[in-house]
Amino acid sequence: MTNELKGKVNYSVNSNIAILEVDNPPVNPLSSGVRAGLAEFIEKANSDESVKGVILTGAGRSFIAGADISEFGKSFDGPDLNTALRAIEFSKKPVLAAINGTALGGGLETALVCNYRMGTNKAIVGLPEVNLGLLPGAGGTQRLPRLVGPSQSLKMMLSGTPLSAKKALEQGILDAISENSLIDDAIAFLQDKIDLSDHPKVRDKNEKLLEARGSENVLAEAKALAAKTRRGQFAPGQIIACVEAAINEDDFDVGLKKESDYFLECLMNPQREAMIHIFFGERAASKIADIPKDTPLMPINTAGIVGSGTMGGGIAMNLANAGIPVLILDQDEENLERGMGVIEKNYQMMVDRGRMSQDQKDIVMGLITPTLSYDDLADVDMVVEAVYENLELKEEIFKTLDSVTKDSAILASNTSGLDIDALAASTNRPGKVVGTHFFSPANVMRLLEVVRGKDSSDETMATVMSLGKKIGKAAVVSLNAPGFIGNRMLAGYTYQANMLLLEGALPSQVDNALESFGMSMGPFRMLDLVGLDLGWRARKLANIETPLANKISDELCERDRFGQKNSKGFYNYSEGSRAPNPAPENEEIYKEISTKNNIQRREISDQEIVDRCILALVNEGARILEEGVAQRSGDMDIVYINGYGFPIWRGGPMFYANQLGLEEIIKKMDIFSDLDKEFWKPAPLLQKLADQSATFGEAPAVEDRAELLSFKVTNMGGV
Ligand code: 3HC
Questions:
Q1: Band of pLDDT at residue 79, cut at 50, 70 and 90
Q2: For residue 449, what are the β-bridge partners?
């Protein structure tokens, strides 16, 4: 094997069994050296007379995490995966996959070419390729349906969700679970089979496919599932087509060939690049450029939450789901009871939908303890304050927390925009203060903005980022600047949506255009959901004149149209339903307000709607990047996909801009500048990168933006 190949396979012989151990830390993807090693050592085991069987396992915590994702779209070294897998499948000696951890994608596909599969009780198996814009391209679409049936295999491949060892055993993916030493158990299992004249191959199991042949139900159900959960994505249709081939083709290899053709189409599709950008982007976002990798983490074994409202309850659920005991505090007994009731109801819903067992519910509920007393928080490792947005109130709470909790406790605020440094200043431990901006509903939304104050210590930041990962969030660091990352970008997006309404578009046109682009919800449906009256009331209270862009929504509020909460806003809603119906009675209001403000209403194309709203995100994103508020452009993509319903298959707004070309973005903005010169002034960084025909990925590294960075931190006033 040459040195340039990545990863390796270790070979040893234990009595008469050859053991092939995939060794490519940290998670053993099937990189070039692994593929070469598998092919070479299967051959070696086959040619060694004394070897009677082969065990394939992984070093460390993973069995095999799939194909090496970093190779996609590039030329690669070594044998291809299917060559290596063919060597295993047609091995003269029986092969057992001893699954010691995660077997995902190509990892499970490798196990499926083995004759037998045994897992530890920690093993996890799945085909998550769909999350990367791909399909299982190493035989998974042909072999998994043969084991679990086409319907179940389609559910696994379309959701990408892996199964536990127990479920995998029930489904027939595993033949056995090892309760003791995996390798010892695997050797014993294989010794039992060695003398058999024939060893099972998944490719030969046709019963479950033949049962499905001739019935359209399975495929129709899968198509409905894909339409509901994977709108706009290319790979799901390809996966269904592969399973259709598995059901209908008599010859296994014909199905395999079709899979390989459909895989290639996914590989060439731009969605694949966008989704892989997000896979690596999420991992990059979890790292903080100027904080050493080996920064010690504080153990977070217990936590407190202040505020038992929607956010507090959702955050408590996140922590409990990760096994962390939580004390949830409210000053008002009634609120606390209501809050605990909502948590219980949310969990019950999960039980009713089969997403959680009653036992699991009892365990997590047992981890959440209500309290009315701050003194109970004395020993917790971290507190997340989640009361309503009022700086004075939060400062008071931070003062109290500072006095009641142990000195080492981290104090976090779930604020969506207040100054973290002001909160830190109300304590004697500014290094331990940080922002944790969860998104509503916190138990569902994956985004977590971790807001770095000027004094937040390395240890605090590293600990909170690691906690974010533990509770399953996509955590992104933002500097402590107004609006942080997401809401600051959102401001320009909704501004443009509102201006389009004044200029002649209708809410349904704007929403439909953006939803066809892939946004999960158009801006006016979103505004109706949030409530139009929030901004209107705040402006009234502060005696602020309504800005031009808000004139229509404020007028709707004047006419008692607040959004979904009172069944009328930009749309009308029937009692108890969230489905928007047109509100033709509003159209006169739109016209009236346009006229009053000397705006000539005109036909507006869907393309203009998409361009104006999305480019507003891009231009503000460029400023955020330039100021160092976000570390890298990919971080903003993670924010928008996980918190604001941006389609993952477009890779986020900044990736989308790169794909379109920054020069093209500038050209489009130049046309819009006739409408609003100030708004459409390109951010200097955007202009600079466009002039160099570069992409956002080529923006200067965060340390080279240090000057701008410190400028921003001390200038909390003005975006
Ligand atoms: N290829 C290349 N690198 C991978 C990888 C893969 N399949 N899986 C993980 N990595 C890298 C990560 O980028 C990360 O690198 P970094 O340290 O430089 O940031 C490192 O391995 C550790 O990964 P995580 O931080 O994600 O580690 P976790 O322990 O949290 O999670 C995991 C482990 C569950 C295995 C998770 O990494 C994962 O889900 N990996 C991807 C699994 C997958 O999608 N497999 C399918 C690949 S496509 C395929 O197989 C096609 C085939 O059908 C032909």
A1: confident
A2: 437, 476
Structure confidence by residue, pLDDT tens digits, 153-203: 999 999 999 999 999 999 999 999 999 999 999 999 999 999 999 999 999
The tokens describing 458, both together, are 């390395």
* Residue 668: alpha-carbon gap to chain centroid: 30
pLDDT higher than threshold 70 for residue 703:
no
The Cα 31–Cα 68 span in angstroms is 5
Sorted by sequence, the CB contacts under 8 Å of residue 541 that are 6+ apart come out as none
Distance of alpha carbon 407 from alpha carbon 378, whole angstroms: 9
Query: Could you tell me if 261 and 242 are in contact, meaning their C-beta atoms sit under 8 angstroms apart?
Result: no
CA 299 to chain centre: 25
HSE at residue 467, side-chain half, CA atoms within 13 A, is: 31
| Separation CA 175–CA 395 (nearest Å) | 58
Q: How many CA atoms lie within 13 Å of 683's alpha carbon, on the beta-carbon side?
A: 22
Q: 658 Cβ partners below 8 Å, 6+ apart?
A: 633, 695, 696, 697
How far away, in angstroms, is 65 Cα from ligand 1 center? 6
Which CATH class, in words, describes the domain spanning 303-480? alpha beta
State pTM to two decimals: 0.94
What CATH homologous superfamily does 8-265 map to?
Answer: 2-enoyl-CoA Hydratase; Chain A, domain 1 (3.90.226.10)
| 67 Cβ closer than 6 Å to some ligand 1 atom | yes
3-class secondary-structure state, position 7: coil
3 state DSSP class of 290: coil
When the candidates are 1.10.1040.50, 1.20.1250.20, 2.40.50.140, 3.40.50.880, the CATH number that belongs to 505-596 is 1.10.1040.50
Which residues does residue 120 pair with via DSSP β-bridges, in sequence order?
Answer: 178
CA neighbor of 409 nearest in space, from 387, 437, 428, 388? 428
- For the Cβ of 260 lying below 6 angstroms from any atom of ligand 1, the answer is no
CB of 29 within 6 A of ligand 1: the answer is yes
Query: Any idea where the domains of the chain sit in the sequence?
Result: 8-265, 303-480, 505-596
Residue that has been written with the tokens 């390798």 in this structure:
183
Q: Which two tokens mark 370?
A: 């209500």
Q: Which two tokens stand for residue 174?
A: 């595993």
d(CA 281, CA 313): 29
Residue 77 — pLDDT band, cuts 50, 70, 90? Answer: confident
Phi, psi of 503 (to 5 degrees): -85, -5
26 Cβ below 6 A of ligand 1: yes
**CB 479, CB 713: distance < 8 Å:** yes
Residue in 6, 22, 27, 34 to alter for ligand 1 test, most ligand atoms within 8 A of Cβ: 27
Contact call for residues 397 and 387 (beta carbons, < 8 A): yes
Q: Which residue has the tokens 């929504």?
A: 553
Specify the length of the chain in residues: 719
Strand order in 382-385's β-sheet? Answer: 368-371, 326-329, 303-306, 382-385, 410-413, 433-438, 447-452, 474-479
Active site residues: 437
